User: Which sequence fits this backbone?
């Protein structure tokens, strides 16, 4: 099973919806948006540039467990300073490897300085399942259509 498809293929299939917050957004508002959109992470954009990713993990570990108020804490206070990104040309396999190495569940996809999407571990799993299903279906059709030996 090949995982050499570029992430741009996945983004095309996934759609163009992309929600984000600013560094000054309260954690409460970010969590509310994530709940409304049923997503686990939000890119954080400052002056139109990617400055971080806010995740459910940031909330649980850096707000809830530390006893901070989500209505008073700003996203900028809890996001990681190091941002791991990929480009649309990176492969599904490269992204899986990077997520495993960096222990992240979401990767912003950037083209130059522009954010063009975000992929999650769930997106990668769904992509692999659908490509495996398509490959199996093609093999079944081939076998069913081939003459008996």
Assistant:
């Amino acid at each position: 099973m090949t995982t050499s498809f570029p992430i741009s293929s996945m983004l095309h299939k996934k759609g163009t919806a992309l929600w984000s917050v600013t560094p000054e957004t309260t954690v409460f508002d970010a969590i509310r948006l994530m709940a409304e959109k049923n997503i686990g992470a939000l890119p954080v954009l400052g002056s139109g540039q990617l400055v971080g990713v806010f995740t459910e993990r940031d909330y649980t570990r850096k707000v809830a467990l530390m006893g901070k108020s989500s209505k008073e804490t700003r996203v900028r206070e809890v996001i990681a300073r190091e941002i791991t990104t990929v480009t649309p040309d990176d492969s599904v396999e490269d992204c899986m490897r990077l997520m495993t190495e960096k222990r992240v569940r979401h990767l912003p996809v950037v083209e130059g300085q522009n954010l063009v999407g975000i992929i999650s571990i769930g997106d990668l799993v769904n992509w692999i399942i659908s490509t495996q299903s398509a490959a199996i279906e093609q093999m079944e059709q081939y076998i069913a259509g081939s003459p008996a030996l």
